[in-house]
Fold this sequence. Notes:
The protein is an alpha/beta fold. Helix content is 45%, strand content 18%. A hairpin with a 2-residue loop joins strand 5 and strand 6.
Amino acid sequence: MRDGAAAQRYAAAPRAQRALHRGAPVPPRLTVLSGPSGVGKGTVAERLRAECPWIWQSVSVTTRAPRPGEINGRDYFFTTGDQFRQMVAEGELLEWAENYGNWYGTQRSPVQQRLAQGEPVLLEIDVKGARQVRATVPDALLIFLAPPSWAELERRLRARGTESAEVIQRRLDAARTELAAEREFDITLVNTSVEDVCSQLVRLMIAQQAPAR
Ligand code: 5GP
């Protein structure tokens, strides 16, 4: 049975999307949105939260300090290294990875609950995490968000303005390696515009649940 919040999210979904989703013969698959640091995964996910609240997005746990404007429980669950290690030890995380000295992870049980309730679930995580999901949830749909060009990715990483030059350099180095992971994914979307990527993403998430013709 769906809970009240889930029912409300459904009510907010466009009718055609609800109809397709209801007709699904199989439970929804887990969808992973990944790609290099700075490509705009967060912006796409934020837009999707506003436009498609019926798609449930996992809120990651991180040991990173909040950036200005970030809210605990909305952007991340901000936690300590000790608490994070405990979650790993107790098997609470579906996947986890270290990025630039901080740890990030996805809590397993909320994801499982939402999928069991028949709700589409999206994870916005890095490439290392996506690989772990591939290994543990083989039927997950892995989507790679690619920048229109390397120059554009570099511009976006430098324009962020919230990190030191050293961190930016580390992110650029990591991004080169992450770009090479594209071939491990099921589908690539090029981030030319947030609107286009969002609508393609929604189509993919619905298509994977539509009855076979
Ligand atoms: P940021 O510090 O910029 O918010 O995130 C840094 C990187 O960590 C991004 O590439 C982001 O996608 C990734 N990330 C965020 N949450 C998770 C998570 O739960 N697991 C993994 N593996 N990566 C995450």
